[in-house]
């Protein structure tokens, strides 16, 4: 039982990060109808920016702010410089360009910073609190949970409760109608990419200190799992990303604890297959799906 | 003063032009019916005016200001609105969200609330369904919402593409009635493309008949309605 509580608590923190990264994929899908296969490499680049600033200033928070800004800039730059120039209504060019971007970014990061793992220090202790002698979440886990939850809540408010969010949604669902209502649709796509990559960068910034350290591939596994999470939840559904993120985080943690770490990716894959068999659009896919 | 002036518009989709060197001048406050058989180019003309289809040649001016080089968004923000053909309601958004979307660039929060209430007063059927998702609306309700959403931004020139398509006669009469009353009250300039010739001519001052990419007739609405030879030649009935 103690072990279960420990694993579940750890799964919760991991799930929040997964959910945030999955939400970032949902955002770029919903605002620009793109699956960004370069999300991990872009987030890794943003984490390197944070790493460099923290190393130079000694401040974790300055690094965090830089990482978020770098993520937003990378997202906006990728949309303006690359994605916007691709032919519309065909997903393949976007995927190919994103894969090219992955190679360029990862090679560039390896050249600039070296391929080795750079340790990143968390701003709070990673020693778990003991509750009744059982180790549960650490202060850093709590920070991770709070940061991910706060950003997800802020994004939900932005999208659902503000005029800007209304324009972002309209531009994604019905670009031509939105333009006819004066919405600057290209700008909304840029903003969607910026928000998406910034959110992914935050997820990566929260994760990396708990792992081996920073290297150009440090975010790859998070991306793979978060992609599965986004598909499980429904690519169109922010709530689905949250639900599936927490669920998958728990699953990964429990399987890792009770079976083995190498079984965890299989468990995620099995869960995704199962969900897709039962609900091809994902858990919370909208009823009236739009294809364009 | 002319509200909308088009000079030498040529528009096409690759092959022969669909609209060929068309000139059209619409006076401020006029309600003009744009008529023509199916495929005459009414939709193409309206989409070209709003920049959704590029011009091959020609110039478009709104109240004397050249719009030709502007994006669709900027033309809309200059006061040119289009209620497009078909179901342009965003089905994922609620009635209220659809409505407000039309005025976001135009109004600050308070003014937007007031403008939305004005529209709900004008369209009580929408008022009762504010929170309903777009996909639950009937065809008539969608067309009303699309019109209300366009009016919310107080355009100077309103283009409508077959608003009566697929509507019951009663819904059509109601829609055209609101349109006529709004134009009379606010001095809005209207260009109304319709297959429903009788309905369109009943609210218009002037009728323009498109045929083979050019203006085949341009007469006061009452004249056109009363000229069976013309109706037969260009409108097919
Ligand atoms: N997107 C398009 N691509 C190619 N041809 C088109 C397109 N839209 C319309 N057309 C052609 O242009 C002509 C005029 O069509 P349209 O403007 O829709 O006429 P109307 O609205 O008067 O019925 C028709 O011959 C039609 O086939
Ligand atoms: Mg048409």
From TrEMBL, chain A:
Q: Does the keyword Glycoprotein apply?
A: no
Q: Which UniProt keywords apply?
A: Amino-acid transport, Cell membrane, Membrane, Transmembrane, Transmembrane helix, Transport
Q: Which GO terms describe its cellular component?
A: plasma membrane
Entry protein name = Branched-chain amino acid ABC transporter permease
Please give the family membership noted in the entry.
Belongs to the binding-protein-dependent transport system permease family. LivHM subfamily.
Looking up InterPro entries in the UniProt record yields:
ABC_transp_permease, BCAA_transport_permease
At the top level, the lineage of the source is Bacteria
Predominant cellular place of this UniProt entry's protein? membrane
Membrane topology is:
Multi-pass membrane protein
Q: Where in the cell is it found?
A: Cell membrane
* A single MF term (Gene Ontology): transmembrane transporter activity
- Source lineage: Bacteria, Bacillati, Actinomycetota, Actinomycetes, Glycomycetales
Transmembrane segment boundaries: 6-28, 35-54, 60-78, 90-113, 142-159, 188-208, 214-235
Mention one GO biological process in which this protein takes part, according to its record: amino acid transport
From TrEMBL, chain B:
Name the SUPFAM superfamilies on file.
Answer: P-loop containing nucleoside triphosphate hydrolases (SSF52540)
Q: Which residue intervals define the domain ABC transporter in the entry? A: 4-237
Q: Sorted alphabetically, which InterPro entries does this protein's record hold?
A: AAA+_ATPase, ABC_transporter-like_ATP-bd, ABC_transporter-like_CS, BCAA_Transport_ATP-bd_LivF, P-loop_NTPase
Q: Name one GO biological process term.
A: L-amino acid transport
Kindly give the Pfam families that the UniProt entry links to this protein.
ABC_tran
Please provide the record's keywords in A-Z order: Amino-acid transport, ATP-binding, Nucleotide-binding, Transport
- What does the record give under GO molecular function? ATP binding; ATP hydrolysis activity; branched-chain amino acid transmembrane transporter activity
Q: Which family does it belong to?
A: Belongs to the ABC transporter superfamily.
Protein known as: ATP-binding cassette domain-containing protein
């Amino acid at each position: 039982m103690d072990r279960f509580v420990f694993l579940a608590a750890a799964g919760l923190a991991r799930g929040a990060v997964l959910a945030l990264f999955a939400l970032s994929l949902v955002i770029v899908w919903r605002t620009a109808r793109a699956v960004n296969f370069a999300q991990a490499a872009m987030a890794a680049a943003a984490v390197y920016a944070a790493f460099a600033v923290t190393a130079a200033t000694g401040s974790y928070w300055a690094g965090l702010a830089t990482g978020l800004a770098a993520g937003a800039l990378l997202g906006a730059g990728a949309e303006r410089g690359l994605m916007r120039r691709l032919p519309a209504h065909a997903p393949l060019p976007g995927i190919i360009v994103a894969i090219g971007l992955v190679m360029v970014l990862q090679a560039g990061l390896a050249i600039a910073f070296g391929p080795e793992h750079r340790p990143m220090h968390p701003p709070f202790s990673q020693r778990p609190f003991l509750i009744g002698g059982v180790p549960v979440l650490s202060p850093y886990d709590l920070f991770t949970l709070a940061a991910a939850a706060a950003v997800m809540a802020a994004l939900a408010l932005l999208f659902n409760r503000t005029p800007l969010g209304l324009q972002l949604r309209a531009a994604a669902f019905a670009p031509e109608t939105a333009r006819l209502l004066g919405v600057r649709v290209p700008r909304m796509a840029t903003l969607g990419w910026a928000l998406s990559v910034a959110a992914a960068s935050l997820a990566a910034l929260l994760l990396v200190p708990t792992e081996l350290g920073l290297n150009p591939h440090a975010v790859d596994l998070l991306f793979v799992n978060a992609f599965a999470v986004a598909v499980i939840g429904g690519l169109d559904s922010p709530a689905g990303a949250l639900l599936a993120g927490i669920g998958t985080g728990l699953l990964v943690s429990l399987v890792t604890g009770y079976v083995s770490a190498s079984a965890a990716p299989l468990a995620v894959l099995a869960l995704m297959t199962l969900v897709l068999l039962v609900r091809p659009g994902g858990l919370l896919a909208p009823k009236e799906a739009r294809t364009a | 003063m002319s509200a909308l002036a088009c000079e030498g518009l040529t528009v096409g989709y690759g092959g022969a032009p669909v609209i060929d060197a068309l000139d059209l001048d619409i006076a401020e406050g006029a309600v003009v019916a744009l008529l023509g058989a199916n495929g005459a180019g009414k939709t193409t003309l309206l989409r070209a005016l709003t920049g959704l289809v590029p011009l091959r040649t020609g110039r478009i001016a709104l109240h004397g200001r050249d719009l030709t080089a502007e994006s669709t968004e900027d033309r809309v923000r200059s006061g040119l609105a289009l209620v497009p053909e078909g179901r342009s309601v965003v089905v994922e958004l609620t009635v209220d969200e659809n409505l407000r979307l039309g005025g976001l660039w135009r109004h600050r929060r308070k003014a937007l609330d007031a403008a939305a209430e004005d529209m709900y007063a004008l369209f009580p059927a929408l008022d009762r369904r504010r929170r309903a998702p777009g996909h639950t609306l009937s065809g008539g309700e969608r067309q009303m919402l699309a019109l209300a959403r366009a009016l919310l931004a107080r355009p100077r020139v309103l283009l409508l593409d077959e608003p009566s398509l697929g509507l019951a006669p009663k819904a059509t009469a109601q829609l055209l009635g609101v349109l006529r009353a709004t134009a009379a009250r606010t001095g809005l300039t209207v260009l109304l493309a319709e297959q429903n010739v009788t309905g369109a001519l009943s609210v218009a001052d002037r009728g323009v008949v498109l045929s083979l990419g050019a203006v085949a007739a341009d007469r006061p609405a009452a004249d056109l309605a009363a000229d069976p030879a013309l109706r037969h030649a260009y409108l097919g009935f």
